[in-house]
Amino acid sequence: MALLPQILHSPHPRLTAAAAASPSPSRAFCRAPRHLHASASRTRGRGRGRLATAAAGASGPGPSSPEPYPPESDDGLVELPLFPLPLVLFPDATHALHIFEYRYRIMMHTVLQTDLRFGIVFAGNSGSAAEVGCVGEVVKHERLADDRFFLICKGQQRFRVARVVRTKPYLVAAVQWLEDRPPAEAPAPGEDAEALAADVETLMRDVIRIANRLNGKPEKEVGDLRRGLFPTPFSFYVGNTFEGAPREQQALLELEDTAARLRRERDTLRNTLNYLTAASAVKDAFPSSPSSG
């Protein structure tokens, strides 16, 4: 559910295909700024599913699968094939992908023959990819006659790239899993994760209500947004609604503190609500004049 695509501004609100060569291992991931060359494009879809397409690649016969990657290395890291895309995948969120570049078709053959998992990392227009990404598990796929794939993946656990293992025929990295850390100290009253989650849900309701009014939609009661989710998965759900602001989404994905993530989302929603409230006041003060004859 995209709540705020027209409010949360991104430097690149419309992303187009960006074909690029595979990066060298030494330059694939940058720490400052934290963002591998993008070889994909995204088109906006409806709801939580979005369509992302790999950039145009070489045509040819169906690729053969390379050796499956090992599930875990001696140092405790997991080797994971990575797909850089101009979008951010959150745990439990779903994305629809169209795979047609040759190297990513090779990757999908390997993924579908092993554990159905690959990593998605956000890649903007700066020529590098984020170090923190999210595992996508293939939950449904269709292989076409020309060896392209349509698939739906669901976000699983987050990871941080520790090192690049190889870049050909596609990028593989050794990653470590990320989990939110419990607070080191007792939070201040009203600043614990549960209270923050309640605040965020209330703000989301208000944002939806005013946004519907501005867009001329009939007012109706907003349903249960939290749906019984604990604070951590709810914070990921909220982050996934911030479509149109992938860099803000990436910042939320990288946080390892649930309360900090919810606090940042609360601030963003408050700013959005202030903006919408002002826009609504202007609309009420200067209603559109009926068109004449």
From TrEMBL:
<feature type="compositionally biased region" description="Low complexity">
    <location>
        <begin position="50"/>
        <end position="62"/>
    </location>
</feature>
<feature type="compositionally biased region" description="Basic residues">
    <location>
        <begin position="37"/>
        <end position="49"/>
    </location>
</feature>
<feature type="region of interest" description="Disordered">
    <location>
        <begin position="37"/>
        <end position="73"/>
    </location>
</feature>
<feature type="domain" description="Lon N-terminal">
    <location>
        <begin position="77"/>
        <end position="273"/>
    </location>
</feature>
<dbReference type="InterPro" id="IPR003111">
    <property type="entry name" value="Lon_prtase_N"/>
</dbReference>
<keyword id="KW-0175">Coiled coil</keyword>
<feature type="coiled-coil region">
    <location>
        <begin position="245"/>
        <end position="279"/>
    </location>
</feature>
<dbReference type="Pfam" id="PF02190">
    <property type="entry name" value="LON_substr_bdg"/>
</dbReference>
<dbReference type="InterPro" id="IPR046336">
    <property type="entry name" value="Lon_prtase_N_sf"/>
</dbReference>
<dbReference type="InterPro" id="IPR015947">
    <property type="entry name" value="PUA-like_sf"/>
</dbReference>
<protein>
    <recommendedName>
        <fullName>Lon N-terminal domain-containing protein</fullName>
    </recommendedName>
</protein>
